[in-house]
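tool_call: predict_structure(chain=1)
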Amino acid sequence: MTRPTFKSFKEEALKREGVKKSYDKLSAGYEVRKQLIALRQKAGLTQEQMAEILQTNKSNISRLESVSSNISPKLSTLTDYAAAVGYKLKIVFVPDNEVRI
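tool_result:
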């Protein structure tokens, strides 16, 4: 008996309505955090260096980038983070075909 891969486990789990709803609700936060980490790493910065640039503690950067964090960053924090790595923040709204008003 072989163990399921994460990909196959995820595919099966997302077939369940409650799991899919929760996953979709959290996906934006996960995506933002993945992008923050990717931008910082592309800039060649450690969390410590990013904290120094933003005049904060490393623990705050770690929490900001953590997918398990319950804290939602302020827009100004994301704007400052982006600027520190040479980017500007752009928010794009996309239609949600499942929303019924």
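agent: The mean pLDDT is 88. Proceeding to next step.
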